[in-house]
Amino acid sequence: MISVLLPSRGRPAALAESIASLRDTAGKRSVEILVAADPDDPDTIAAAEQLAADHLWVAPERYGYGRLHEYVNALAARANREWLMLFNDDARMLTPHWDTVVERQQPGVLWPSSNDLPGCNTFPLWPRAWTTTVGHVSLSPHCDTWIQQIGDTLGQQQRIPVEILHDRADLTGGHNDLTRAESASGYRTAEFYGPVMQAALARDVETIRPLVCKENTP
Prior knowledge:
three-stranded mixed sheet; 10 helices
C-alpha cells in the first residue's frame, strides 16, 4: 500500500534503525521500502542489501544534496504501491499500525506529526498517481516542500495521527556527522523560491488538479 522513498548516505547503522522502525510498527506489513545510495558508498549499499530493502537503486554518480530530488525521482519511478512517502535515515517511525492509519485516508497530501518546525511537513505521503501523472516527485532538492505546496495549493493536505521522530543534529543533537554537514550546505533555498522553480511548481499543480477533481467526484 505504501512505497517509502529513502535516500541514504554514510549511515548504515542509522539506515538499519530507520527501516526497522518502519517495518516493526507496520500493522499489515504492507510497506515497500526503496533505498537510494551513491556508488562511492559501499557500506550503505551493503546495509540495504543485508536489510533486504524491497528495492536498492545505486545512482550512476554521486549527486549530493543539491540533486536530492534526482534520487527521490528515481525511487518513485520504481515504486509499486498506492501511496508514496518521503523518509530519512535519521527518522524513526513511532506510531504502531501507522500504515492502517494511512489506509483510511482519502487521496491528498498527508501530514504526520514530527519534532520538526511546526510549519514543515518533512515526511509527507501522497498518491503515487500524482507523481506518475507529472513524471516526477520534485524538480527541486526541497522535495518535501514541493509536495507540501502542491497539497496546500490544491486544498488537499491533511494532518494524520502518525508520529515520527526526526533525530537530526539541530533538533535532537543526533547524527551530527559529515552527512548532516553536507546537507546543511547542499540545498538551494533561494532557487526554490525563484521564478523558474515556482513556475514549474505551478505547472505541476495544474497538471494534478484534474486528477484531484476526478478523485473527489462521487
